[in-house]
Amino acid sequence: MKQLIISLVIISIGLGFVSFMKDGRVPEIGLEIGDQAPGFEIEGLDGKMIKLSDYKGRMVLLNFWASYDSQSRINSYNLTRLHSLYQDCRFENGQGFEVLSISLDRFKSPLREAIERDRTKYFDHACDYKGREGNLVKMYNIDQPVNILLDGEGRILVKDAFHEKLEKSLSYLELK
User: Fold this and answer.
1) How many domains does the chain fold into?
2) Which helix (H) or strand (E) holds 3?
């Protein structure tokens, strides 16, 4: 029964959002479902700057996580599977699925070890090593690890999406 209710909520949100996308209105910049996600630029672990606008035209998951958080580590494992399933798929408003993994860590060594151990090297990784005091974390009002799914236009589709909810959302939005 609980799963049926969750599925109905996801479908109703999805239908509402798809109808919103097709009405041509320009969404407001904000942090709610249907809003245009605030743009940002952050340094990747490889030293290159990453902009949210780099993902235009692709579905992207903003994965705020921490190497010291067990739930984040489990989520990372599940995200590698979802990434391999959906990376080349076509969606209602995006081609392909990418994961931008934004760490809440303060120290380099545990972060790099977690990326290696969790086998998430195919994700784009960023960290400012300021923990919950970082500018991006504050901009997105992040107080714990969370996932935010954006469409190809940078609109927020799903928040607080973890494995099951995220997979249902991607499956629903996939053009078959």
Assistant:
1) 1
2) helix 2-22
Average pLDDT over residues 34-56: 97
For residue 25, is it left (φ>0), alpha (ψ between -120 and 50) or beta? beta
**What own/partner pairs with CB < 8 Å and gap ≥ 24 does 160-167 have?**
161/61, 162/75, 162/78, 163/75, 163/78, 163/79, 163/82, 164/6, 165/6, 165/10, 166/61, 166/79, 166/82, 167/82
Q: What is the DSSP string of 57-73?
A: TSEEEEEEE-TT-HHHH
- Per-residue pLDDT band at 111 (split at 50, 70, 90): very high
What pLDDT shows up at residue 23? Answer: 56
CB 172 within 8 A of CB 9: no
Nearest CA to 152 out of 57, 18, 29 is that of 57
User: Could you tell me the residue range of the domain that residue 66 belongs to?
Assistant: 2-173
CATH code of the domain covering residue 103: 3.40.30.10
Q: Which residues on neighbouring strands pair with residue 149, listed in sequence order?
A: 61, 158
Residue 132, both tokens: 């919950």
